[in-house]
Amino acid sequence: MPTIVVDVMPKAELLDPQGKAVQNALHRLGVEDFDSVRIGKRFELTVEGAVDDALLEKVREIADDVLSNAVIEDVVGIEVVE
């Protein structure tokens, strides 16, 4: 069964408080290799049958309308994995 993976991230121009908290924790642990950390969301939608362009368009609409908050987040990827 194919799975459609939708990745959502905070808009680049907005502060990511969760990412900042993780970055600070890494610094406290002595890990100084990363300039920033951003935390997003991953959704996995499993379907039976074939994935066609119409279904991917429907997933794009769902991602924009339901899975993300367009004011503060961007849908950065939609991928089909088998």
Automatic annotation (TrEMBL):
Pfam families attached to this UniProt entry = PurS
Q: Which reaction does it catalyse?
A: N(2)-formyl-N(1)-(5-phospho-beta-D-ribosyl)glycinamide + L-glutamine + ATP + H2O = 2-formamido-N(1)-(5-O-phospho-beta-D-ribosyl)acetamidine + L-glutamate + ADP + phosphate + H(+)
Q: What does this protein do?
A: Part of the phosphoribosylformylglycinamidine synthase complex involved in the purines biosynthetic pathway. Catalyzes the ATP-dependent conversion of formylglycinamide ribonucleotide (FGAR) and glutamine to yield formylglycinamidine ribonucleotide (FGAM) and glutamate. The FGAM synthase complex is composed of three subunits. PurQ produces an ammonia molecule by converting glutamine to glutamate. PurL transfers the ammonia molecule to FGAR to form FGAM in an ATP-dependent manner.
- UniProt-listed Gene3D superfamilies: Phosphoribosylformylglycinamidine synthase subunit PurS
Recite the UniProt keywords alphabetically: ATP-binding, Cytoplasm, Ligase, Nucleotide-binding, Purine biosynthesis
| Catalytic class of the enzyme | ligase
Q: Does the keyword Membrane apply?
A: no
Location comes to: Cytoplasm
Record's subunit section: Part of the FGAM synthase complex composed of 1 PurL, 1 PurQ and 2 PurS subunits.
Task: Please identify the protein, giving its name as recorded.
Answer: Phosphoribosylformylglycinamidine synthase subunit PurS
List, alphabetically, the NCBIfam families matched: phosphoribosylformylglycinamidine synthase subunit PurS, PRK05974.1
State the EC number(s).
6.3.5.3
Recorded hits in InterPro entries, A to Z, give: PurS, PurS-like_sf
The UniProt record lists the keyword Ligase: yes
Pathway(s): Purine metabolism; IMP biosynthesis via de novo pathway; 5-amino-1-(5-phospho-D-ribosyl)imidazole from N(2)-formyl-N(1)-(5-phospho-D-ribosyl)glycinamide: step 1/2
Q: Which HAMAP family match?
A: PurS (MF_01926)
**Family in the record:** Belongs to the PurS family.
